[in-house]
Write a structure and sequence with these properties.
The chain is of the alpha/beta class. It folds into two domains: 171 residues, D-Maltodextrin-Binding Protein, domain 2; 100 residues, Periplasmic binding protein-like II (D-Maltodextrin-Binding Protein, domain 2), CATH 3.40.190.10. Helix 4 crosses helix 10 and helix 4 runs antiparallel to helix 11.
């Protein structure tokens, strides 16, 4: 199941909570639609209604305003950031709710188009998508190819089967089998740890890479993998959704901002999106949405930025 972690055109991502267990296995690889379902329990009472912000709407490029929408590339397998509702087609999640609110501030709609994670940045760069919103961690490599607008901060979290039956130690996982989603920053993380094991004369870490995060999570639930790494919200959500079959190990680390991805040639659209995020932060919509996903007390930011400085 292993696959290459990068190429000059392949993005990395540090992603949040994952849908795990039987529920996660039902998530399809394709989806359409957008916005949180008020009938779905994952996001509480549903996303708030948002009115257009005239100052933000004035920044929207004329062609986008005339069209009335943007196409958003998303990998709908990364709960609670972005995943499929019970109908199997509607994309929901806290990243979805946040960007839907941004689009509303811009006076347009977001049309969500499902894709695989590793193809979205390239799709934005080629013009296939206007925007990419899929738990993308902002890093220097991505910002060489696209512009990124910050809106949330997340670190990596280890998790394992409840009770940690294999005695996994994140600081000494040599010889263990660890599940990660391909094309994420967690791949680089675990590969570096495995190399350190071998340099010390210890067994390498068996790294199982999966195309979708829910598959990686299920491998831990089934016992195929001893542990996994994912974005903090994903790991916490996995624990919640598996009724105690999983537990987190230690604290999240190496926190970095998520960013919406925009083509470098679309500077006006990028600025409109930044202003839209700032508008929902300033009027409280941002906190309201995150509270619905039990994320209001962690990872929030006060200022949306284009291509912010990040540590490598």
């Amino acid at each position: 199941m292993a696959s290459p972690t990068s190429s000059p055109m392949t993005p990395f991502r540090a992603r949040g909570l994952l849908a795990a267990g039987a529920a996660a296995a039902t998530l399809a690889a394709t989806a359409c639609g957008g916005g949180a379902s008020e009938e779905d329990g994952a996001g509480g009472d549903g996303a708030p209604e948002v009115q257009a912000d005239e100052e933000v709407a004035a920044l929207v490029p004329d062609d986008v305003a005339e069209q009335g929408s943007v196409t958003v590339g998303v990998d709908a397998s990364y709960a609670p950031g972005e995943f499929l509702d019970a109908d199997g087609s509607t994309v929901i999640g806290f990243n979805v709710d946040l960007f839907d609110a941004v689009a509303a501030k811009m006076g347009i709609e977001a049309n969500w188009e499902a894709s695989t994670f590793g193809t979205i940045v390239e799709g934005v760069d080629s013009g296939k998508y206007d925007v990419g919103v899929s738990s993308f961690t902002i890093n220097a490599e991505r910002m060489e190819q696209v512009d990124m607008v910050s809106y949330y901060t997340v670190g990596t979290q280890w998790f394992t089967a409840a009770g940690n039956p294999e005695g996994v130690d994140p600081d000494d996982a040599c010889g263990m089998t660890v599940a990660v989603q391909a094309n994420t920053v967690q791949v680089e993380d675990i590969e570096a740890r495995s190399e350190a094991c071998e340099e010390a004369g210890d067994p390498a870490i068996q790294i199982d890479q999966y195309e979708r995060q829910d598959q990686a999570t299920q491998s831990i639930v089934s016992g195929k993998s001893d542990a996994g790494l994912a974005d903090m919200p994903v790991a916490v959500y996995a624990v919640e959704q598996t009724d105690g079959q999983l537990e987190t190990l230690g604290e999240q680390y190496e926190a970095a901002p998520y960013g919406a991805v925009v083509n470098k040639e679309n500077e006006e659209l990028t600025e409109a999106i930044r202003a839209g995020y700032q508008s929902i932060i300033d009027d409280g919509t941002y906190d309201e949405i995150l509270a619905e996903w039990d994320l209001a007390d962690q990872g929030t930011i006060e200022k949306a930025e284009i291509n912010p400085d990040v540590e490598e």
